[in-house]
Automatic annotation (TrEMBL):
Subcellular location: Cytoplasm
InterPro entries per record: HPF/YfiA_ribosome-assoc, HPF_long/plastid, RHF-like, RHF/RaiA, Ribosom_S30AE_C, Ribosom_S30AE_C_sf
Quaternary assembly: Interacts with 100S ribosomes. Associates exclusively with 100S ribosomes, which are dimers of 70S ribosomes.
UniProt keywords, alphabetically: Cytoplasm, Translation regulation
Protein's name in the database: Ribosome hibernation promoting factor
Family that this chain belongs to: Belongs to the HPF/YfiA ribosome-associated protein family. Long HPF subfamily.
Function: Required for dimerization of active 70S ribosomes into 100S ribosomes in stationary phase; 100S ribosomes are translationally inactive and sometimes present during exponential growth.
Family matches, as HAMAP family: HPF (MF_00839)
GO molecular function: ribosomal small subunit binding
UniProt region (Disordered), positions on chain: 96-125
Pfam family, one: Ribosomal_S30AE
Originating organism: Rhodosalinus sediminis
GO terms, biological process: negative regulation of translational elongation
A cellular component annotation (GO) from this entry: cytosolic small ribosomal subunit
């Protein structure tokens, strides 16, 4: 497995890197089959250290965790515990999906845009929004169950995916009441 351990304005020494590899490696070996790579980023926010970890699994799913603490090792340990809890929670589902899916998740390229907010209360000159940035993103081909699992693992508010069963673009999202919503356009049925 590949590790990318870095710090934003923080020097990440050999001892911390070794600790990250040992602890995260043990957690991943216990709960995830064949993780491909892990990215761990340390930063400082006022008096706290922040640790953000992203792990890509061989099934194509991604698990993310974030934690903060007053010590850098404590921040990583809390982040690792969150990652371990997520993977433990989904271990059975990950195994089930992995048996059904011998190949990694197929992805399709797409453009993602960041739009400027409407400023003041005056009427806009045009209905076209102002594009601030354009990036490339990927839309995975998943089952609905895998999409919900990916939404939970990533902690994301919304996930756009291509429904493998019907080949249409679908959306799963976290509702305000805590439930998960699923949008499937009638065209894709």
């Amino acid at each position: 497995m590949r590790y990318q351990i870095s710090g934003k304005h923080i020097d990440v020494g050999d001892a911390l890197s070794t600790h990250v590899k040992d602890e995260l490696g043990a957690a991943l070996e216990k709960y995830a089959n064949r993780p491909t790579d892990a990215q761990v980023i340390f930063s400082r926010n006022a008096h706290e250290y922040v640790c953000e970890a992203t792990v890509h699994l061989s099934t194509g799913l991604t698990a993310q965790a974030r934690a903060a603490a007053t010590g850098i090792y404590a921040a990583f340990d809390a982040c690792c515990a969150k990652m371990e809890k997520q993977l433990r929670r989904y271990k059975r589902r990950l195994k089930d999906h992995h048996r059904e899916r011998p190949q990694p998740v197929e992805v399709t390229g797409a453009s993602s845009y960041i739009l400027a907010p409407e400023g003041d209360d005056s009427e806009p000159d045009t209905l076209q929004p102002v594009i601030v940035a354009e990036t490339q993103t990927q839309i995975p081909a998943l089952s609905v169950g895998e999409a919900v699992m990916q939404l939970e693992l990533a902690g994301a508010p919304v996930l756009v995916f291509r429904n493998e069963a019907r080949q249409g673009v679908n959306v799963v999202y976290r509702r305000e009441d805590g439930n998960i919503g699923w949008i499937e356009p009638e065209d894709s049925a």
